[in-house]
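Go through this chain.

——
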Amino acid sequence: MAPGIPSAMDRPHFIGIGGAGMSGIAKILAQRGAKVAGSDAKESATAESLRALGATVHIGHAAEHLADDATSVVVSSAIRTDNPELARAAELGIPVVHRSDALASLMRDTRPIAVAGTHGKTTTTSMLAVALAELGLDPSYAIGGDLAGPGTNARHGTGQIFVAEADESDRSFQKYDPEVAIVLNVELDHHANYASLDEIYESFEAFVAKIRPGGHLVAGEHPGARELAARVSGREGLNVVRVGEDEGADVRILKITPKGMTSEVIVAFDGSGEEITFTVSVPGRHYAHNAVAALAAGARLGIAPADLARALTAYTGVGRRLQLKGEARGVQVIDSYAHHPTEMTADLEALRGAAAAADSRILVVFQPHLFSRTQELGKEMGEALTLADASVVLDIYPAREDPLPGVTSALIIDAAAAGGTDVRAEHDMAAVPDVIAGMTKPGDLVLTMGAGDVTDLGPRILARLEN
């Protein structure tokens, strides 16, 4: 068994190894010397990157893909109980390990920073990973998207710090015991797992309770994060750090100046009077807030804020977070993972600022994610789309869910139309490049938006515009 690998992770088999969370853990284990194998539904660049690290990746799910000598089977909450590899694991008596338990085991004997919140986790985790690497600290990291520079979502580093995205959707983030936890925001989402906002708060409180004694909670300015901070303040051994633009913030944002597709941020640290100015390479106030939360968290591990701020300028983006996919005939195509109304609004407001300066229109191709989310938030999604000049709405991406009666993209389209915006339905993804080509003119910004396979449309739209 290689050093730094728990015995159950010596020869792991991942079901759904190509997923953002699963692939990151698999990559780190492979880099540590484990014999990694797994399966995924289809070929992908992620599967190829895993093979390049020595992992065995099967396409499709079949019982024979699971080796008899596997020491564990790793699953996420998206894996159905009737998966043939899962059934084969039960026959062979191979232990089944949840993705969160596997990640928790990798963070032992490190100084973990866990980044949580309904929105912004991937960006903030990425900013920290890039800045720490820029300072020569060689962190390990597990992120829900590929960094623009390294082109990967995970790495085993030689340094002490481990930065991880902490997913609240299935309560799995309660498995981690970070030295520093960031909570950017708290909102009701993941309706299949949470019945109320109170349940969400209870889950986040359980996450905060796992922070190591003497550790730190960095709370964003969002009302939900502030409420959480108020609920846990006074806990013995917990230091609460509030970040935001309000006067009561411990790390206060003094000014955010939009500069095209970037922002300049001025921040005052811990009431010291010292002002630090740095650049965030993506537009929008929410991304500036993410950067300052990253700055506050790193400082709690003893890193000089001014050094970390300079290092943050090395961050050039992460896949699917207002990622420029290319430009053709004067039209820029940008990709966004936003799928909750708050995320959609934030990204569209950020682009609206950039578009106004360039006298551009914003055209959105939106793919709703999950029937349960659309049922609860479809009206709010439609209202968010009124910030665009025109929108094309695709059918709902089901992910792990079965359809719900009466729940379709029409819930979103009707709400957007009621807001007076130009919105239309498109049931055939293959037709979208032609549709967009017929709508655009030079100077326009096209935004593909959603958590499903809408991201695949960016290159197709660019190719159609070229031709």
